[in-house]
Write a structure and sequence with these properties.
The complex is a heterodimer of chains A (221) and B (216).
Chain A (H helix, E strand, L loop, with lengths): L20 H23 L6 H8 L3 H7 L3 H25 L4 H18 L1 H8 L7 H12 L2 H5 L1 H4 L10 H18 L10 H25 L1
Chain B lengths: L19 H17 L6 H8 L3 H7 L3 H24 L5 H18 L1 H8 L7 H18 L15 H18 L10 H28 L1
Helix pairs in contact in B: 1-2, 1-4, 1-6, 4-5, 4-7, 5-6, 5-9, 6-8, 7-8, 8-9
Classes of the chains: A mainly alpha (221), B mainly alpha (216).
Chain lengths: 221, 216
């Protein structure tokens, strides 16, 4: 998947070409998805129009409506696309380690780095997503819940694993997103990587308690 | 607490105000937004619900957004007022926290529309509204911070109250978003665990959770 705002997406060559129509459509779709994130992050969801999106993506209005029902559908698709990339990056980092606390540290480090690299996307993804209405908020929750299995491995690692409430992973996720959103709301996305100790503590603490969590945090920092 | 099923207990309160009509409009705004969503709400809907005139509305507010912000502030103040009065009289931090949390979930369960406005629809009302929502969550964290004393001299992260509040508000948000605000009181044991665990660890928090489930 192309990374939003970082490199220009591939475009079919101008003029006559023999690209199959589905390849052209895919490229137009990708451009619209990227445009949706950029424009909504800059202007806010409410003031973004379909015309803004087609202009930014360099596609026609007709093409837009062939691909998406409306602005909302395009934004939700763009949102899912961006979140997919983020979840893949976090999961890959997580899986590069063995011990659960190390896996969590690697995953969170990747998450914070990704969000700090693209502050507008980060703010849109975590803070401003609600401006697109409850449907977008449900997408947000669904995206966040995809990280649940990574947290739930903590049950096997923790001595208290069996007595933990079923909602423990959601608590950890809520604590982490709370800490990150607090920085984003204050406009300090670039400082997110410095939050690693706190988000690591917040993730580990419901599973292993404050003493052990503090030890894990302290070991490598 | 007096329960008035199906009505907004919190907003039906006797109001110590010099502007009863303004308060009627604010209460109507909270109900209508909770029922229909912020985007779909019009000034006409709000004045119809409030039983006031358009002139009265514009005497007090510039527009829908201005009115919503005022309504949101009132909502936050009322919830805080309730939480504070439920905390009064309890000396121990744990008792105060348990009481405060129980008060919030009962208010939300009694009035799902208020809950929806308070935690879900506020996000659709623009950046300023989202900032005020965030400020409200931050105010709750101030209550939590006395819990540091329970840690028995351990070093706890500076942001620990925010972790605790983030975990609790995430669980509440999920339920309200799914239209299950009335189930929140049943989740009180879990919410209590989420709030306490950064301070006292999973074993002690699970004990509190079981205690809450037994007395709940």
């Amino acid at each position: 998947m192309p990374q939003v705002g970082r490199r220009e997406p591939w475009r079919p060559p101008r003029g006559r070409h023999r690209l199959p129509p589905e390849v052209v459509a895919r490229s137009q779709r990708d451009r619209l998805l990227e445009a949706a994130i950029r424009v909504v992050a800059a202007k806010g969801y409410g003031s973004t129009t379909v015309a803004d999106l087609t202009r930014e993506a360099g596609v026609s209005r007709t093409t837009f409506y062939e691909l998406f029902e409306d602005k909302g559908a395009c934004f939700l698709a763009a949102y899912d696309n961006a979140v997919d990339a983020l979840v893949r990056r976090v999961t890959a980092a997580y899986e590069s380690e063995q011990r659960w606390p190390d896996r969590v540290r690697a995953g969170l480090e990747a998450l914070l780095a990704a969000l700090a690299e693209e502050p507008e996307l980060a703010r849109l993804a975590l803070v401003d997503v609600g401006s697109a209405g409850p449907a977008a908020q449900r997408r947000y929750r669904a995206a966040v819940q995809r990280l649940t299995p990574l947290f739930d491995e903590g049950r096997d690692f923790a001595a208290a694993g069996r007595s933990l409430p079923a909602n423990t992973s959601r608590m950890a996720i809520g604590a982490v997103t709370g800490l990150i959103s607090d920085e984003l709301v204050a406009g300090r996305a670039e400082r997110l990587p410095g939050l690693l100790s706190d988000v690591l503590f917040a993730t580990l603490v419901p599973y292993i308690g404050p003493n052990a969590a503090a030890r894990e945090v302290g070991e490598k920092s | 607490m007096i329960r008035i099923p199906g009505s907004s207990y919190l907003l039906a309160w006797p109001m110590a105000t010099t502007e009863p009509r303004r308060d009627l409009i604010l209460a109507a705004m909270i109900r209508v937004v909770g029922a229909n969503g912020y985007k779909a709400t019009s000034v006409a809907d709000v004045i119809e619900e409030a039983g006031t005139s358009r002139t009265t509305f514009y005497k007090h507010f510039d527009d829908k957004h201005d009115c919503f912000l005022a309504a949101y502030d009132m909502l936050v103040e009322r919830v805080f007022g309730e939480v504070l009065s439920s905390c009064n009289g309890s000396e121990a931090w744990l008792d105060r926290m348990r009481g405060g949390l129980a008060t919030i979930v009962e208010l939300f369960a009694l009035d799902p529309q208020l809950a929806r406005t308070a935690v879900v629809e506020v996000a659709a009302a623009g950046a300023e509204a989202r900032q005020r929502h965030w400020n409200a969550v931050a105010r709750f964290t101030e209550f939590l911070d006395d819990g540091r004393e329970l840690a028995g001299g351990r070093e706890l992260p500076e942001n620990i109250a925010l972790m605790s509040a983030g975990a609790v508000s995430g669980l509440i948000f999920d339920e309200v978003l799914a239209g299950r605000a009335e189930r929140l009181p049943a989740m009180l044991p879990d919410l209590l665990f989420a709030m306490l665990v950064p301070y006292i660890g999973p074993r002690a928090a699970a004990d509190e959770m079981r205690r809450a489930a037994a007395t709940g």
